[in-house]
């Protein structure tokens, strides 16, 4: 039996080197040559600065931009701390939300549950108080970094964006269509709109109405 | 449920079935030592490795030697990983500067055990805990080695049935080496490159600092993701490079990668049933096992999809119609999220593309029950086959009891010893799941830790999946993210996932505390090795037996009747053992959700 100790030690070392060093370095080398952009994270550069990744969502608050889904990653779209809300179907925090406790002045205990998110969504998009809201607009994604929204969600936001940018609604809808991906092969996945790419396209199509960067960047 | 959703599930299953025979045939050739088209490439490497290990290819092992070799391999890997994790602060490829502060002793123990046992439970959030080196060198090799171990053990058990009056059940080193070289490596190579093409990063750069369109700063985690993602799915490991696992757009960016990731989870477990049939000389025996797995898998998937698509009435009352979208990604939608959840838990993978914690109660019960079934619905690579063969032994035993005849399976008499060992494996798992849950749901640890060591530990932030909290000590049932029955389900899911070597989670639970790290670590060791060792004992005992010629009284095990009996045994063992716990968790929560009760 003790004869098995040498193969145990040698095999663990050998496989660690093969699978833990050779393999990832080989994949890195090949992919840097074949797919350099994707291997680096599909980053978007503008005027020499990195402004994000095509695959990673961002927080948008200004009316002239399409808004991403609510996020539970860090303070929102923190791509160094991906996470969902992990709130269950009978969670009061999720279904009712939490109001700020006025007794503690320094701390903000409030948490936007689905009703608060739905009210805010209806208000910013000028919808009736009892209008239906697309589910993806008021739920937090699994990663907290979901780069995409549903086409229904984008369609409801289009009039607000058009008004804020003083553009025709048709022009905005056209951009939405151009940035909508259908199901792969017409079968797999769901139709979706990439928010970062759509907003970039908006800025490109109408640079004059580009919303100014927020005075103090969010933390 | 939509037509497209049902179609996607049906297409996935159809493609899977097409892979079973070619892949199963290929593995049968590899593991019986025949030449394959890969032999010219890997043959010399294989022989070189045997020389390095000091083993002879033709040496046959008794079951005790086989088990010892398997244990020595696992323990050696476990120690190496523990040391590398603790030393990550002084090791290279650490652009974010993570050190022992993030990787505490109890977390390193839990993590090393987790990856060694093919569980890949993650008490931590990798994004802000692990260096690239830790991910790549300390953890990822286990994705290969633990998968190879699972395949080897399954082969040993199959040989127990296939051989007659034999002493040995094969050579562990040969089985493990061939699994890595001929099966895992070539597939992972192409698979990883496809993932990169689709957008999965593969670099060693530090986290990217971006200035967003609105002028905010965003830090984007990077790393050698694709090389780890491929084997993470193919080896049914499931340990994510990022906290959000396969829901993270960098791990699973498109519907195509999602399809490949689902397919690669089931590829080897499904094909091994054919390999089994081929090796015992009757492929119908393999199809029978696959049939039982398929029925249970499809029923579970559609129940899960149905409840997720029906959604939460309390959310719908707020003017948000449709299915349950909390914790799901837009590109996958509800059908692919439910399908992925069913696959990853049936197969002991544990990768997730949606957050199971936010599923509807019954939608979340399905993943939980899939694990409780003993990870035999396809199951982990190797682990699914050997688990299902254990249930097959119990099924013929029960059939034998009904007609008062000594049971046989594949021409081997199933006697007291085999049934005892099979029951041992079953009961130990149940004790670990229910005992661990009872402890976690009731324990109240002293609030003020006295030793300075414990005080020091207490200062570290909770870096588990969910929010950080101050629940390192005190009542362990306060570590949950949800109250009421859902909180109990979080604890039950944790011990079920650990014992079943699955690794997925109701991720709201704060598991990165000394109590949970240690007890979940023990549950993973129990679930892995107290299952494997009795099964290897069965393999040894069966290999030594003579063949009993089939007679009129033999219960045929390649028919629909046997498939139904096998399903019945799996469900009855699972249901009888876990129904009370499930009734207090997801089942009561389903009624409360309908009635509008919140916690």
State the main characteristics.
heterodimer; A: 219 residues; mainly alpha; 3-stranded antiparallel sheet; two-stranded antiparallel sheet; 39% helix; extended; disordered C terminus; B: mainly alpha; 4 strands
Descriptive overview:
The complex is a heterodimer of chains A (219) and B (599). Chain A is mostly helical and 219 residues long. Chain A contains seven helices and five strands, in the order ααββααβααββα. Chain A has helices at 5-34, 36-39, 92-95, 114-124, 151-165, 169-178, 195-205; strands spanning 43-46, 49-53, 148-149, 180-181, 192-194. In chain A, helix 5 (151-165) packs across helix 6. Mean pLDDT of chain A is 93; it is low at 215-219. With 599 residues, chain B is mainly alpha-helical. Chain B has one domain. Chain B is 61% helix and 2% strand. Chain B contains 18 helices and four strands. In chain B, the strands form two sheets. In chain B, strands 1-2 form a two-stranded antiparallel ribbon. In chain B, strand 1 (208-211) and strand 2 form a beta hairpin. In chain B, helix 9 runs antiparallel to helix 12. The two termini of chain B are 28 Å apart. The chains are: A mainly alpha (219), B mainly alpha (599).
């Amino acid at each position: 039996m003790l004869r098995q100790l040498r193969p145990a030690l040698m095999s663990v070392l050998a496989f660690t080197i093969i699978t833990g060093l050779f393999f990832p370095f080989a994949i890195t080398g090949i992919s840097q040559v074949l797919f350099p952009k994707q291997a680096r994270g599909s980053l978007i550069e503008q005027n020499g600065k990195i402004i994000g990744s095509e695959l990673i969502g961002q927080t948008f608050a200004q009316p002239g931009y399409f808004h991403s889904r609510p996020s539970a990653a860090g303070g929102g779209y923190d791509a160094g701390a991906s996470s969902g809300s992990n709130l269950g179907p009978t969670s009061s925090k999720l279904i009712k939300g939490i109001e700020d406790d006025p007794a503690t002045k320094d701390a903000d205990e409030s948490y936007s549950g689905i009703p608060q998110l739905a009210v805010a969504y209806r208000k910013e998009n000028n919808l009736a108080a009892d209008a239906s809201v697309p589910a993806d607009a008021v739920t937090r994604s699994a990663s907290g970094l979901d780069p995409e929204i549903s086409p229904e969600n984008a369609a409801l936001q289009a009039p607000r964006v058009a008004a804020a940018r003083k553009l025709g609604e048709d022009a905005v809808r056209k951009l939405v269509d151009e940035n909508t991906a259908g199901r792969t092969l017409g079968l797999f996945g769901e139709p979706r709109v990439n928010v970062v790419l759509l907003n970039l396209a908006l800025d490109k199509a109408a640079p004059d109405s580009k919303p100014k960067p927020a005075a103090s960047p969010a933390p | 449920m939509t037509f497209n959703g049902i179609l996607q599930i049906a297409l996935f299953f159809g493609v899977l079935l097409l892979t079973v025979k070619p892949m199963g045939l290929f593995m049968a050739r590899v593991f019986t030592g025949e030449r394959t088209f890969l032999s010219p490439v890997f043959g010399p490497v294989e022989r070189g490795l045997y020389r390095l290990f000091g083993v002879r290819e033709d040496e046959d092992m008794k079951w005790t030697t086989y088990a010892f070799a398997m244990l020595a391999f696992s323990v050696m890997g476990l120690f190496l990983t523990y040391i590398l994790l603790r030393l990550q602060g002084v090791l290279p490829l650490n652009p974010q500067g993570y050190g022992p502060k993030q990787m505490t002793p109890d977390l390193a123990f839990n993590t090393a055990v987790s990856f060694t046992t093919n569980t890949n439970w993650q008490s931590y959030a990798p994004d802000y805990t692990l260096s690239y080196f830790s991910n790549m060198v300390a953890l990822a090799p286990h994705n290969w080695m633990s998968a190879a171990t699972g395949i080897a053990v399954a082969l040993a058990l199959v040989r127990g049935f296939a051989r007659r009056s034999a002493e040995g059940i094969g050579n562990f080193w040969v089985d493990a080496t061939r699994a890595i070289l001929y099966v895992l490596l070539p597939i992972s190579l192409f698979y990883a490159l496809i993932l990169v093409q689709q957008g999965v990063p593969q670099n060693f750069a530090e986290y990217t600092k971006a200035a967003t369109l609105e002028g905010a700063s965003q830090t984007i985690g990077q790393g050698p993701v694709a090389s780890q993602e491929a084997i993470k799915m193919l080896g049914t490991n499931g340990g994510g490079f990022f906290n959000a696992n396969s829901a993270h757009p960098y791990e699973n960016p498109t519907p195509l990668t999602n399809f490949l990731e689902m397919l690669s989870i089931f590829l080897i477990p499904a094909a091994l049933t054919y390999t089994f049939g081929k090796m015992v000389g009757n492929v119908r025996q393999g199809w029978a096992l696959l049939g039982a797995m398929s029925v249970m898998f499809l029923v579970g998937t559609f129940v899960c999809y149905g409840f997720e698509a029906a959604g939460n009435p309390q959310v719908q009352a707020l003017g948000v119609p449709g299915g349950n979208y909390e914790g799901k990604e837009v590109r996958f939608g509800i059908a692919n999220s439910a399908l992925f959840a069913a696959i990853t838990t049936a197969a002991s993978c544990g990768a997730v593309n949606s957050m199971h914690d936010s599923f509807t109660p019954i939608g979340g019960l399905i993943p939980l029950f899939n694990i409780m079934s003993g990870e035999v619905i396809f199951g982990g690579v190797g682990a699914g086959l050997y688990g299902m063969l254990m249930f097959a032994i119990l099924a013929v035993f029960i059939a034998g009891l009904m007609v008062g005849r000594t049971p046989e399976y594949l021409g081997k008499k199933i006697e007291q010893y085999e049934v005892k060992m099979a029951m041992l494996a079953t009961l130990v798992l149940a004790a670990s799941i229910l005992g661990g849950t009872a402890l976690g749901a009731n324990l109240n640890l002293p609030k003020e830790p006295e030793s300075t060591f414990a005080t020091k530990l207490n200062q570290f932030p909770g870096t588990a999946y969910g929010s950080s909290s101050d629940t390192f000590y005190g009542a362990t049932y306060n570590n949950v993210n949800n109250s009421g029955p859902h909180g109990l389900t979080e604890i039950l899911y944790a011990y079920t996932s650990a014992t079943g070597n699955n690794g997925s989670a109701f991720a709201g639970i704060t598991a990165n505390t000394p109590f949970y790290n240690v007890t979940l670590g023990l549950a993973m060791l129990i679930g892995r090795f107290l299952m494997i060792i009795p099964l290897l004992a069965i393999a040894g005992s069966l290999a030594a037996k003579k063949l009993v010629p089939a007679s009129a009284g033999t219960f045929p095990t390649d028919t629909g009747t046997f498939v139904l009996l096998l399903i019945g045994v799996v469900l009855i063992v699972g249901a009888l053992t876990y129904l009370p716990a499930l009734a207090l968790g997801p089942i009561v929560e389903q009624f409360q959700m309908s009635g509008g009760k919140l916690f």
